[in-house]
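Might I ask for a little of your time on a matter of protein folding? The record follows directly beneath this note:
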Amino acid sequence: MAASDGSIRASDADRERVAASLRDHYAAGRLTSDEFNERLDKTYAATTLGDLAGLQTDLPAPPDPGQFPVPDPNQVPTPTQSPGPIMAGPGRLPEHWRGPVGSWLSISLVCFVIWLLSGASGSLWFLWPTGVLGALLLARLVSGAPPPGSRRQYRRDYRRQRRRY
């Protein structure tokens, strides 16, 4: 028996494929709600491939997947395309460093406000905690080490980078 013979029994996957095609045609406006429901009922009741083929004879065939070009991931996006995720570039802070740096800025601001409210005496004590924490973060950033508490994210980024090359 040939594979194109309409008397071959249909599988559940064949029925699902035809049902998905009918849903696409309904969404495109080629079928009314009543026609869609009637054909869908017949699709799930079909026993042979010939029965399934008869449900789509007056509908256009789906486009060939090779008909549309596959987008090149290296091409520059046009204004209609989404530019994608913003990558860290020169002068930009990597995303996994934003949390620790934001925390450092918050701590620095709180210490500075407390210093101001305490009378802003001649002692610049608020520079000690903020300076030490800032120096530690800067040393980790310059050395390429991950920020504190983000080893998992750092490893994920490292693996993703290695896969690209």
Remarks:
- The CA atoms of residues 26 and 36 lie 6 Å apart.
